[in-house]
Design goal:
Number of strands: 0
Strand content: under 5%
Largest sheet: none
Shape: elongated
Radius of gyration: 15 Å
Number of helices: 3
Length: 56
């Protein structure tokens, strides 16, 4: 996909318009990175929270 296409999809998402998951697939690497960071910053004592982050 092109950068222009990605920008169009992001604009639709921001406006609350419909888009398909395949159109927004370019965001997947960023989502994974954010999920990994969130998991790593969750204390081990919060096992339920950590578990919920693994079940996406």
């Amino acid at each position: 996909m092109t950068d222009i296409h990605n920008e169009e999809v992001l604009a639709r998402i921001a406006k609350g318009l419909l888009y398909t998951e395949s159109e927004a697939a370019f965001q997947a690497p960023l989502r994974r990175t954010e999920q990994i960071l969130e998991y790593n910053l969750t204390p081990p004592s919060e096992s339920e929270r950590r578990r919920s982050l693994l079940v996406y």
